[in-house]
């Protein structure tokens, strides 16, 4: 692979040769092709199934000679003849953990770097010394790698979030019994929100009505636990029974400049500023003063809120949940009515069957 023997490599691939097979000193054919800038060979090996993220097991000449009990000159010659003789590798440095992308970067082979990235090479893989490929690259190649690092990190985070959400309903059911339908509705809403993203000006807010003890608050806690991974500040609980007076609004968003305590901010805005994608629970929302609910209108309508200092917090990626015991008597009456109707239908079906 040092020289561009494209036809020979195609023949080997067609014959079913293991293209990921390692040299006795640890490198693969793709490593060799990448460091020598053989673009066609790189393409052929990748087409044949070469793994772009395999790490080199070669350290350096001295260490490999000790490990293999071979002559130092022999290992040096093998590295030069079988790997590369280009004057770009330091014989004293360790190359353990290098991928094909590391070698393409250190050789300043921009075309090879592009091909590897297109074929799934991970630009975030670190060597034994904790170094990523872009650290070895020149200006143009370095910029290309850094752009893909950002994209790769974003993609990985999105996949991780989607994977977590896909199992959200199952996980929450392990903690809350007898509320399958509400759990399904909430988790479906979260999945839809995740697909839309925060750029569509769609705020995710839910209103949980029900008697005390049915699991409203616990459901909100479980959403915060699994969606935001229980990171510090990821779950914000505001007891709205503490905001029954009109002036309590200052406790929520903070006092204006010039008033005592304005530098501390409000309970809600201070925490949202630190974690704008938090899960926010407004517990017993019906007990809050109407003026406070008016302030929250901006939050639910546009996904942003302004604190007492005039700082606007964009929290379109947050999840807002309100709980209330409103109409508790009517809900219980409706539930009892439905239960009685169900029992009547079951008795009728049982009678007809017999």
TrEMBL record:
GO MF assignments: ATP binding; ATP hydrolysis activity
Database matches in Pfam families: AAA_2, Ank
Top-level lineage group: Eukaryota
InterPro entries reported for this sequence: AAA+_ATPase (IPR003593), Ankyrin_rpt (IPR002110), Ankyrin_rpt-contain_sf (IPR036770), ATPase_AAA_core (IPR003959), ClpA/B (IPR001270), ClpA_ClpB (IPR050130), P-loop_NTPase (IPR027417)
Record-annotated membrane-spanning stretches: none
Keyword tags: ANK repeat, ATP-binding, Nucleotide-binding
Domain AAA+ ATPase: 202-342
SMART domains: AAA, ANK
Gene Ontology CC terms, in alphabetical order: mitochondrion
Any one biological process term the GO annotation gives: cellular response to heat
Keyword DNA repair: no
Placement of ANK repeats on the sequence: 25-57, 96-128
Coiled-coil spans in chain: none
Annotated Gene3D superfamilies: Ankyrin repeat-containing domain, P-loop containing nucleotide triphosphate hydrolases
Matching PANTHER family: ATP-DEPENDENT CLP PROTEASE (PTHR11638), MITOCHONDRIAL DISAGGREGASE (PTHR11638:SF93)
The protein, known as: AAA+ ATPase domain-containing protein
Organism: Diploptera punctata (Pacific beetle cockroach)
């Amino acid at each position: 692979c040092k020289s561009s023997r494209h036809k020979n490599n195609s023949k080997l691939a067609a014959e079913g040769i293991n293209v990921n097979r390692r040299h006795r000193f640890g490198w693969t054919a793709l490593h060799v092709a990448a460091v020598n800038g053989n673009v066609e060979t790189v393409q052929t090996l990748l087409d044949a199934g070469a793994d772009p993220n395999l790490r080199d097991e070669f350290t350096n000449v001295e260490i490999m000679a000790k490990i293999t009990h071979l002559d130092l000159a022999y290992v040096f010659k093998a590295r030069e003849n079988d790997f590369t003789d280009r004057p770009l590798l330091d014989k004293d440095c360790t190359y353990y953990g290098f991928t094909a992308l590391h070698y393409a970067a250190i050789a300043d082979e921009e075309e090879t770097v592009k091909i590897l990235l297109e074929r799934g090479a991970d630009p975030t893989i670190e060597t034994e010394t904790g170094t990523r490929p872009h650290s070895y690259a020149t200006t143009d190649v370095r910029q290309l790698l850094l752009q893909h690092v950002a994209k790769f990190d974003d993609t990985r985070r999105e996949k991780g979030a989607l994977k977590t959400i896909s199992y959200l309903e199952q996980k929450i059911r392990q903690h809350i019994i007898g509320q399958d339908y509400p759990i399904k509705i909430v988790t479906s809403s979260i999945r839809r929100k995740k697909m839309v993203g925060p750029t569509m000006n769609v705020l995710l807010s839910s209103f949980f009505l029900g008697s005390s003890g049915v699991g409203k608050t616990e459901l909100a806690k479980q959403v915060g636990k699994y969606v935001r991974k229980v990171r510090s500040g990821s779950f914000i609980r505001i007891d709205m029974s503490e905001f029954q007076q009109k002036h309590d609004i200052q406790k929520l968003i903070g006092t204006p400049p010039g008033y005592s305590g304005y530098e501390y901010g409000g309970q809600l805005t201070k925490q949202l500023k630190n974690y704008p994608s938090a899960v926010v629970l407004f517990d017993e929302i019906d007990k809050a003063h109407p003026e406070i609910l008016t302030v929250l209108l901006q939050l639910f309508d546009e996904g942003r809120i302004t604190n007492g200092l005039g700082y606007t917090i964009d929290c379109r990626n947050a999840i807002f949940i309100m709980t209330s015991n409103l109409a508790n008597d009517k809900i219980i009456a409706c539930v009892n009515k439905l239960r009685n109707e169900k029992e009547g239908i079951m008795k009728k079906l049982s009678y007809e069957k017999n």
